[in-house]
Request: fold
Amino acid sequence: MYRYDEFDARFVKERVAQFRRQVKRRLGGELTEDQFRPLRLMNGLYLQLHAYMLRINVPYGTLSSKQMRKFAYLARTYDRNYGHFTTRQNLQFNWIKLEQVPDILEHLAEVEVTSIQSSGNCVRNITSDQYAGRAKDELADPRVYCELLRQYSFLHPEFSYLPRKFKIAVTGSPNDRAAVAVHDIGLRMHENEQGEVGFEVLVGGGLGRTPYIGQTIRKWLAPQHLLSYVESILRVYNVHGRRDNIHKARIKIIVNQMGIDKYRALVDEDWEYTKDGALRVPEEEIARINAYFAPPQYEQLADETELLAKLRAGDRAFDRWVRGNVVEHKVPGYAIVNLSLKAPGKAPGDITADKMDAVADLADRYSMGEIRVSHRQNLVFVDVKQSELYELWHKLAALELATPNLGLLSDIICCPGLDFCALANARSIPIAQDISRAFTDLDELQKIGQFTINISGCMNACGHHHVGHIGILGVDKRGQEFFQLTLGGSSDQHASLGDRLGPGLPQAGVPAAIRKIVDTYLVIREHDERFLDTYRRVGIEPFKTAVYGDESQAA
Amino acid sequence: MALVKNGELVASSFVDASGAETIPPSGPVIVGLDQWKAHREALIARGTPLGIRLRSDQPPDLYAEDLPHFAVVALEFPKFRDGRAYSYARLLRERYKYKGEVRAVGEVLLEQLFFMLRTGFDAFEIESADPLGDYRTALGDFSVWYQPAADGRPTAMQLRHAKR
Reply:
């Protein structure tokens, strides 16, 4: 993992001191709420329905056990004994008092964690593949570039008052687990014709009320130019991005208004002046950061094929868990283990302080003390010995963290919704709970196969509903909550936006509608085709008929 | 309104006529872009120092070729949330190599001064009970900078590798 050096440590300390002063000025009336709002937001502090919410960065989804224990401590001391992992790999506390925030930030700084720019109209936490550095399908470890971008973006003097928020995601694998196509900038590592590793740069992706899939602004970018090229994209956005209407202020709007070719021309024009300047990343810096991400000292092990086959044959539940939640590691004898935060009836992404501590202990015992957070709101142990999987599984199961539903229908993405969020129109968590309770039969879940359901409580789309195989959007119609379904969305390397199925449904009707869609799919799928592939093959009509009946075709 | 320039309280020697109907006949004056376009030759002929004041939707490429005529370029922050002028200041300093005064005007608040300093502003119209105190506070907030900008402060990356 990356560790702070003297510069990073001093910077974060100074930032905490600055925020302490800003809070004091606010409490003393020197700053108006209007003036204070962007300052607190740039430290991750929102004013929600019931209290302040603090969003803490988990840079590119990597945590140490020590940091997790600190989260547990903070949850107990300053919140109500739990936290919530988000679709941007961050952690949110929901019941925070303004005057305590500087102390919380000081606690976080002790373990090299911040909330800097987890909100605000600036560059947000850089997200990435939760399996980075361990996945067998990976071309290169993206974290060194995430870390470069993290440092580069912190308190950027030119880009702290952008037209709107700005999200960057990086994937080092052709199998995109970081949803880069729905980010303001998406970076995909790949090889050019000379076999050199660089980035395809996507720009203008995003969800919210006007969703777009990102477009390629540059097919291949050399790593030493990463920062200068990103800076030019940001500068063109800062100057040309719309500031007349908050709903049209994201980069996706201006990119699509002027067209990708024009946007590219403006970026290239600016970049000509800067590409070989001070932003050029020296080899030494890449090497310095990369050293922190060097693979840990693995033991020389062989794959435990026989042992695992025997254990799986003798224990069906273990077999199911291995098949669902365990992923191939690039080192023989090791495995990647996903911890599901989606047990039936739970709020997706939520975890109690006690479980945080337990996860930290298990990470130390079984996975070299490291924990990852995925944008699908689960946790991951990335360095588990295959020989210890069975033991670990028992311990995770006792903590309700071994539900074998990774990537299956009940592995639901869900925003906090109207239970917490000031922006929400509808309660999203109860919908997730209803669905997960309606689909608890593990054999059935496995039969249905790969399936994503993404739920947002409003059109801001924190629950990524547009890119769920089934998306569910909560809306408010004359004081009543309704839920609109979309089908066919995906956030992977073949990203697509879902199509609207029909009129919104009341909460009680949602699980039944999902059931009808699933039943229809199981009838018409060919071989072991995923729901998404069936949908792409047959289109929306059979599902529309299943949910609304024949007469609703006109709706 | 106090003007802080290079860390000192100063009196502006310029009359800001950018919002006025008429331009004073003599003395150092700041005009708007439209006034400049309309009276360019006459203003140059006065032989007194000139300044130009730009709205946040007026980027430097609209007046870059005339920069040698200006002792002051005043960039407006109509709202502190409108961050376009940070880019304009950097472009003035880094692309157009402008050496004169770049003045921040409009909603210029303590908490933004630091960003302004880094992007190339060297003068600030500050509405505050203690403008110089605000300036010093903002200047003292940080001793580590991650990005190269117009102020030339060494970045953390540069310092890391200079040490070795």
Summary: Chain B has one domain: 2-162. Chain B touches chain A at residues 59, 80-84, 86-88, 90, 94-95, 109, 111-112, 114-119, 137, 141-144, 146-149, 155-161, 164 (CB under 8 Å). Strands of chain B lie at 2-5, 8-10, 15-16, 29-32, 50-54, 70-77, 101-106, 123-126.
